[in-house]
Design a protein that fits this description.
By secondary structure, this protein is mainly α. Helices cover 60% and strands 3% of the residues. Strands 1-2 form a two-stranded antiparallel sheet.
Length: 231
């Protein structure tokens, strides 16, 4: 188990597997775990979450299906390299304002959406709609899932066939994620307002409706950055 000051938090029993997968996802992001880093054992995670090992195992299957982790039999659970290979270029952004990051992410996300429209396969576009529909199903029950949201954007960026754009956007998204997690008294419901736009975005990409797709991603980005505690 990697030494860390940030532990997993207990979850409620409603939508248990999804909530556990979200808790583990949050643990990965907040502790800045990298590809090939090892997660705590199922026993340790179950203890931190106040749940059973079977429930943790089911949640891990969700994360494995989403491509966030992989399991080595007899060795444990590890973070997966979502980009498939190590980049030869390392870029670090310093002293950037929230407005500057928003401008950069908007440019990158616009290009990612355009790439997805032109480079994504029909099957990929249908999968994106399925993920967005799953998000909407949870939304109808007032439930938000970081895991599903992550899966949506990962699929979107994979469709664009540009790993540099994917990695730059993911770095900005991860920074914003940690900032929101550190806001006291807030819960995941704050992100529910962006869920319908995810479905609109997926449908617009499938129909090659550029204007609608860019409008939807702009609404998602504007809402997310409006929550920035440092803005």
């Amino acid at each position: 188990m990697k030494k860390t000051d940030i532990l997993l938090k207990p979850v409620e029993k409603d939508s248990l597997y999804l909530k556990i997968s979200d808790a583990i996802y949050s643990y990965i992001k907040l502790n800045n775990l990298q590809p090939e880093d090892k997660l705590p054992s199922e026993r340790d995670m179950a203890a931190m979450l106040h749940t059973s090992r079977n429930s943790v195992r089911e949640a891990l299957r969700i994360l494995e299906d989403r491509g966030l982790i992989y399991v080595k039999t007899g060795s444990g659970v590890f973070i997966k390299n979502q980009y498939g290979e190590n980049s030869s270029i390392c870029i670090r952004l310093t002293e950037c304002t929230a407005a500057e990051l928003q401008e950069l992410q908007t440019v990158l996300d616009h290009q990612a959406v355009l790439n997805a429209i032109h480079r994504g396969t029909l099957e990929e576009k249908e999968t994106l709609i399925l993920i967005a529909t799953e998000l909407m199903e949870k939304y109808s029950h007032n439930i938000y899932s970081h895991t599903l949201d992550y899966s949506f954007h990962t699929k979107l960026y994979d469709m664009g066939r540009n790993k540099s754009i994917h990695q730059l956007i993911q770095g900005i998204r991860d920074t914003r994620f940690v900032e929101r997690e550190n806001v006291h008294g807030e819960n995941d419901a704050v992100w529910l307002d962006t869920v319908p736009q995810h479905l609109q975005l997926a449908q617009a990409i499938a129909k090659s409706n550029t204007a609608a797709a860019l409008g939807a991603i702009d609404e998602i980005l504007e809402y997310g950055f409006s929550l920035n505690p440092n803005k």
